[in-house]
Structures are given as structure tokens and as C-alpha cells.
Amino acid sequence: MKLDVIKLDGGSAGSVDLDEALFGLEPRADILHRVVRWQRNKAQAGTHKVKTRSETSYSTKKIYRQKGTGGARHGDRNAPIFRKGGIYKGPTPRDHGHDLPKKFRKLGLRHALSAKAKAGELVVIEAAEAEGKTGALAKQVKNLGWKRALIIDGAQVNESFAKAARNIEGLDVLPSMGANVYDILKRDTLVLTKAGVEALEARLK
Q1: Closest to 25 (Cα-Cα) out of 97, 122, 117, 135
Q2: Region of residue 120 (phi > 0: left; psi between -120 and 50: alpha; otherwise: beta)
Q3: Cβ(25)–Cβ(102) below 8 Å
Q4: Domains of the chain
Q5: Neighbours of 192 (CB within 10 A)
Q6: Where is this region: Disordered (predicted)?
Q7: What are phi and psi of 147, to 5 degrees?
Q8: What is the pTM of this model?
């Protein structure tokens, strides 16, 4: 499939041929959902922790005699039934991540790119280069109508462009190796440089 290439100032820079195997698939929500779920679970800290009966700071002395009180038989105040006692079967630190085959993760990225192409939310620019001035870049982004955009460059992101873009709300820049399903779907517009298109095609073939 062919797509027009533009410059950051809005001018035309020819066209580019996009690989149908990457940008021409029929997007499947089930595949995208599985990959996003894998990403979010892997990113979850899992540091939640409660104190068990053996970790609370009450005395372990028996609170009253075993028989004759007419109440339940308790050993100490750390029992879960008491206020400030230990928590029974509460969360403990653990890893929330689960396995997902590499081939499936690649497939998910292909479907994410295809979803953006099908929705008309894919833009190809000639290069992501700037003079390092945030104000000038912000004006160009506004003129292009990008409100929540993700720019994916080649193997390396231009340093002055990254510096100019980092303080613009709603604009994110990633190298091609950082391209992922969650970040692509989260933004309204996906912007690829020519170098980014080549790098993604090489990575996902």
C-alpha cells in the first residue's frame, strides 16, 4: 500500500510503499488485547504486602483463660478477628507477568500498525529533525493537528528533536526498538519516519 510522505512543515515529500504484511492486516481485537494485557501485567510492580498474624506487633500472651469466659478461645491479640490483628490470606510480593510467545508479540505489533493504518491515523514523515527549539516544534505539531501523537524513528532518535519534543504535552518519541502495542494504541496518531518504517519492516519480517 502507498502512503504520502510529508515534512514537519506540512510540505509534501513524495510517497512510500508500506508492506501489506505489516500495515494491511485486518486488525483483531483479541490479539491486541492479549498483547496489551501481557505488557501491563509485566509492568505491574507486585510490591503489595500486608502483615500476617506472625508479623503484627501485639504481645503473644494469652489474653484470657481458655475456659469459663463464655466467649471464643483466643491465644493472643494478633488473630485476624481483632482490630490491628494480622490479615488472613492478604497480598504478598509477587510477579504478575506471564509468558507470551515472541511470535505472538510480533503478530500483535503488526496488528497494531494495521489498526492505525485502517483507521487513517497513520502518518509518515520524511525525518524527525528539529533545531532544538520546543516552541517552533510545538507550532508545527499544532499546525499538523497532532493532539496525542507517538513518533517512532529509526534505530536512533535525533537528539535535538527529542530535546525539543520532551516538553510538548501529548507528544512522545521512541526509537524503532521501543515500538510496542500499548503505546501505539494509546495515542490518537501514529507518526513514523521513513527510517522508522524501514526499521520496523526489518524487525517484524
Answers
A1: 117
A2: left
A3: no
A4: 2-45+97-204 (3.40.1370.10), 50-90 (no CATH)
A5: 29
A6: 64-99
A7: -100, -50
A8: 0.82
